[in-house]
Amino acid sequence: MAQQPRKSRTQRLKRLKFIVYLLIAILAFYMVKVAISSKSRQVPDIPPAPIVATPPANTPSTSAALSADNLYSPYAILIDLANYAVLMQKRSTARIYPASLTKIMCAIVAIENLPDLREPVKLSEVIFRELWSEDATMAGFLPGECVPVIDLLYGALLPSGAECCLGLARRIAGSEQGFVKLMNEKAVALGLNDTHFANVTGLHHPSHFSTARDLADLLCYALQNEIFRKVFTAVRHSTASTNKHPGGITFYSTMFKKIGDPRFKDGVILGGKTGFTAEAGLCLASLAEYGGKEYVLVTAGAKGNRLTEQYNIRDALMVYSHLGK
After folding, report:
1. pLDDT (average), residues 305-324
2. Is 246 in a helix, a strand, or coil?
3. Which of 73, 90, 92, 160 is labelled catalytic?
4. Is 100 a catalytic residue?
5. 122 an active-site residue?
6. Is-catalytic flag, 38?
7. Is the pTM of this model over 0.85?
8. What is the pLDDT of residues 167-198, one digit of tens each?
9. How far apart are CA 124 and CA 236, in angstroms?
10. What would the mean pLDDT of 98-112 be, rounded to a whole number?
11. Reduced to 3 states, what is the DSSP secondary structure of residue 270?
12. Catalytic-role residue among 90, 103, 186, 293
């Protein structure tokens, strides 16, 4: 009978241990359950949404309404001059013949190589013999005429005078081919990887080619130059008195002569360079302003000629008029 209390204490100790183990087990089970529940409620990783720029209030925006499907021109590209974003394109990287859009490169290379725009340049008779035989477009200068550089630039870009391009080329590089080398070097420097010039005027040659994209990039570059921009956007220009034209000559932009009214809803075409050969079709490189922003459009290959309806200009008005729709 003396051992009964000890046995009772041992049983109580076992029950106590059992209770303790049971509590530990319950606590462990609860902690595991909480952990699993917490993990199941975690939000999975979601990539951040792309940042979409919202146009400021009252600023017209371009939209998907811009389409190249209805253009007369088989090659086209529209670029936002502020950020070089391509807003519309149609076979813009296919090779084309640039025709007189070539004179954009001729003009910017001449500007960058002739600091004195008032320097007189004598137009040799050789220049005219070559151009007359090729029926090239002329500005109206004569053999032996001494013309300031600035007037040759206007003559090249407004009435598309081939004699102006050759005069600038011979003054800078000594020959047309020497200047063509400078033009091709500039094309490489600008990354115009599918452009090659064979002459300074744009007369047809199988090795004289570019793309709508390259020409648009070229125009975007050239427009950064204040002199080029001033000439490119001129409607008309009267030259200085020369030894052959004491009263000077007045040039008119070929594009502005053919476009009639350059305005479209809430915008205006600021300037442009037309081009045409039988192989190139009707071409146009233009600059327009709409809603406080500027846009560059290049189209090429439209059917027609200088005497037909100017489908290159119709394309430009149609594309620009759809800005913001």
Report:
1. 93
2. coil
3. 160
4. yes
5. no
6. no
7. no
8. 999 999 999 999 999 999 999 999 999 999 99
9. 25
10. 98
11. strand
12. 103
